[in-house]
Predict the structure.
Amino acid sequence: MDSNNNKSKAFFQMAEEITKKGVLSEKFKELIAISLSVKAQCDDCITHHLPKLISLGATDEEINEAMWVAVMMGGGPSLAYLMKAQKVLKELRKN
């Protein structure tokens, strides 16, 4: 169990390092991440990245445009996840 915990911790440290501002802004990297989350059909990823995008000042238009890129690449299944993500985004904006 400890080995799994260490691996998880290492993964999250890597992700934190990768998403820091570099040549690409944090917001741009998170827009890529939300697009990939929709393409990967990952509910947990969507609920992780949307709040981060909101905190980084991403507009709904920016987020939706990034997610539509996923639909372009992933077709109908990605469209289903875009629709789920839009519902989550709407709920987050209410709060």
The chain has one domain: 21-94. Residues 60-94 form the longest helix (35 residues). The mean pLDDT is 95.
